[in-house]
Fold this protein.
Amino acid sequence: MHMTDDISSTQRAADQAADAQGAIRSTQRAADQVADAAQGAIRSTQRVADQALDRLSDKVDEVRSQAAPLLNKVSSQAEAAARRGMEAVRETSQQLRERALQAQDMTLAYAEEVRFPQTYPELAGFLRDSESYAPQLSPKRFGELLGLDVQTLAQQARVHRNTVARAPGSKAVQDLIREALRVIKAATDLNGNLGEALHWYRNEPLAPFGYRTAERLVADNRADDVVRYVSSLEAGAAG
């Protein structure tokens, strides 16, 4: 009885071992199938990636071939624009050169037309206002003679700048010019040269008057003091 039980137990153990081996084989087959599936998926993914790269490469070549004419067109347009720019610069330079020459010609023509005086009698005639019937002096020509702009002349006469142009015969403007002429005449009588007298009037600092110029002193209503000073120099030279 005991031996029969032992045989039965042994048989069951053998059956269980066989079942275990079958399970192992089944598991091995499943693992092999999973490995094959994974390997197939990898190969499929690699094919898809290769195909995508091939399509991308083809697309890049297509874009490059399409872009080449556009780039050539843009390059041509840029070169044309650069040429037009250079031509415009040359044209503008030529126009500026021509205008400069015209201005020079006009300046020379004006200098020939308006001959500055060389003597005091010529100065008196030069400053006569030919545009007015009244016996008055021309602020415009006085300014040209001494290199004074309208603003400076107006400041010296203590009037608004518009007065110089619109009312050249105003008392303040005419008095300034006449007082200046008195001093210039005295200086011309002293050295005999109008050009030097005009330069002295505008630029020479006078020590007895705090190194102010005759022009400044005339603007400060001290023309009489300057005339007396010049007369004293003339008397000293004569003595």
User: Anything to note?
Assistant: Confidence is low (pLDDT under 50) at residues 106-113.
